[in-house]
Amino acid sequence: MKTRIGLFFASDAGIQRIMVNIANGLTNLGYRVDLIMPEIKGQYLIDLSPDVKLFDLNTRNPINVLNNLRKYLKTTKPNLLLCADQHINIAAAIARPLSGVKFSLIITQHNPLGILKHDFRWFVRILPLFARIFFPLADQIVVISQGLVREIATVIQQPPERLRVIYNPVITSHVFQRAAESPPHPWLNNKNKPVILGAGRLTQQKDFFTLIKAFRLLKSNLDARLLIIGEGEDRPQLENLIRQLNLQEDVCLANHQENPYTYMKNSDIFVLCSIWEGFGNVLVEAMAVGTPVISTDCESGPAEILEQGKYGQLVPIQNPLALSEAILTTLTHPIPSHILKVRAMDFSLSPIMSQYEQLLQEFLTP
Fold first, then answer.
1. Are 274 and 140 in contact (CB under 8 A)?
2. Average model confidence (pLDDT) for the chain?
3. What would the DSSP string read from start to end of 145-190?
């Protein structure tokens, strides 16, 4: 009988995309794969292999999630459970002894834990404390960048050697197929000015305020346009800033797009202006389709993706002037597309799945 592996995660878009890629990769390697979620929903599930079995815990209540996960474990008896991100990792670590089932537990952390203590919700602020208690119960802790090793190890009070780095498997054939489609936005179809692209949720983390301010400075040297794709709670404030800076004609806050890759391919430059990141999937995606990139030098993944500036400029966070200068320089002297594409393939499914298979073989129980 095939080795059975459960993948347990919530519906966060970035993590879902990666876990779907891992599920498909494990299926291709011959494993029997279950995908377990508190609620089966999300845009990336459409890309899931039909050979992956879905298990809907059908609840967002933490106690019910824990109980239903325990039932899944007792019923299916997986050989290994691979989980993603803090509250899911904690639930899995608690559920394992409650289930009475022997299996290996690997948890992966995709974001810094320290930022959670600044959240206004009390139950989120205490997650770092719970992580300190329960993360060490896993057989292996995986993080998605070298920068996260230092941060997570400090928060959970474990030696850095206890953690293992495996980068995200971002690039699949799906990226290139979707990138080849025609972009739906008129600025990209009938381009008469350079288009700068940003993408992500309109939240504090992504800091599109700095990007808009940087674009205002850029306008004094270059006639260009700024296109931001995404949705989120900061939209009203961002729209207000655009009006204040009189940029309505050249800045567009488009909605969330099902196909961001065609936007990336047909833009002149992609900018990530986050205050923090666990990795920075969008940088890799833009590079894969040959688009020059710039990123803030935030914790913790972008500098590793760009190899400290070799594949794109790194600028300080929340610094509009430095960002505007980097955009102008990159538009004037872009890194050749073929160089960016080669680097992006370091984060494609095949090489990353080889690392995951090696990891699984170390911890699989018969």
1. no
2. 95
3. SHHHHHHHHHHHT--GGGEEE-----B-HHHHHHHTSPPSSHHHHS
Look up residue 320 and give its two tokens. 């509009």
Q: Which residues, other chains included, contact 244 with Cβ-Cβ below 8 Å and sequence gap of 6+?
A: none
Contact of 113 with 155, CB cutoff 8 Å: yes
CA contacts within 13 A on the Cβ side of 304:
20
Q: What is the pLDDT of residue 14?
A: 86
d(CA 153, CA 161) in angstroms, rounded, equals 9
**Per residue in 103-153, pLDDT tens?**
999 999 999 988 776 667 767 788 889 999 999 999 999 999 999 999 999
Mean pLDDT of 21-26: 97
pLDDT digits (tens, 9 = 90+) for 307-347: 999 999 999 999 999 999 999 999 999 999 999 999 999 99
In the 8-state DSSP scheme, what is residue 309? T
Q: Which position has the token pair 């802790």?
A: 141
What 3-state DSSP class applies to 136?
helix
Structure tokens that stand for 126 in this block: 């205490």
Q: What angle do CA 283, 288, 293 make, to 5 degrees?
A: 40
Which pLDDT tens digit goes with each residue over 250-305? 999 999 999 999 999 999 999 999 999 999 999 999 999 999 999 999 988 999 99
275 vs 195, 207, 248, 303, 317, CA distance in Å?
23, 6, 25, 13, 6
Task: Give the DSSP H or E segment for 88.
Answer: helix 86-99
From the list 142, 113, 141, the residue with the least C-alpha distance to 129 is 113
Q: State the distance between the two ends of the chain, measured CA to CA, in whole angstroms.
A: 11
Determine the Cα–Cα distance for residues 100 and 96; give it in Å rounded to an integer.
Answer: 7
Please write down the long-range contacts of 354-357, taking CB distance under 8 Å and 24 or more positions apart: 355/166, 356/22, 356/25, 356/26, 356/166, 356/169, 357/29
The rounded distance, in Å, linking the Cα atoms of 140 and 143 is 10
Distance separating alpha carbons of residues 211 and 205, to the nearest angstrom:
12
Q: Are 343 and 287 a contacting pair, CB within 8 Å?
A: yes
Q: 3-class DSSP state for residue 16?
A: helix
pTM of the predicted protein model? 0.94
